[in-house]
Amino acid sequence: MFFSTVVADTGSWVANFNWSEPTWDLFIILFFVIAALLYGMSLGRDRIIVILISIYMAMAVINTAPFLGDASAEIGVNQFFVFKITAFVAVFVALFFMLSRSALISTVASSDERGKWWQVIVFSILHVGLLISITLSFLPESALEDLAPLTKSLFTTDITRFIWVLAPIVLMVMIKGGAAGKKRYKYDI
Hints:
- This protein has 189 residues and is mostly helical.
- It has one domain (24-175).
- The protein has helices spanning 2-16, 24-43, 45-64, 67-75, 77-100, 103-108, 117-137, 141-144, 149-156, 158-174, 178-182.
C-alpha cells in the first residue's frame, strides 16, 4: 500500500510539475538524488557510518534538550524551527568531528576503506534520506502542507520517518565487514 501510494504520487508529481517555476519539492528531491550519489561516493562507507551515528546522537540531543522549550518561548513558535534546525546542524557537525577523531572510526573502519560500491550507495541514500526526514520533522505543520504529496509521503509521514530512522540501523547490523566484523574476540556471544 505504501509503495503504491509513492508510485502514484511520483507519477502525478512528474506529470503536473511546472519546470518553469521550481518549488522546494524539486530542491529536496534533487538534493536527495545528487547528495546520495556524489557525496556518498566521495566519502566512502566508513565515514558515512560515522556520519549516521553523529546524526542519531544529534537527534537524541536536540529532541531531549530541556533548554529548547525555553528558547521557543523567547524566539516565538513561528521561528522556533529555524533555531531547532540550526542547533541540530551545529550538534551534528560538532559530533561528527569529535567522533571522526575518536576510537569509533577505528572500530568502524575496515581494510577496504571505501567499502563495496553497493554499500556506499545504499548507506548514502539512507544517510541523506534520514537527514532530510529529520530536517523536515522540525518544520511546522503549516510549512509541510505546502509540500507535494510525493515529498510528504517520502519524508514526513510517521511511517516514513520511522523507516528512515530504522533502515540505517538494520543495514549496519546486516552488513559484515569492518574491523568489528573481521576480529574474533575471546568472549564472543
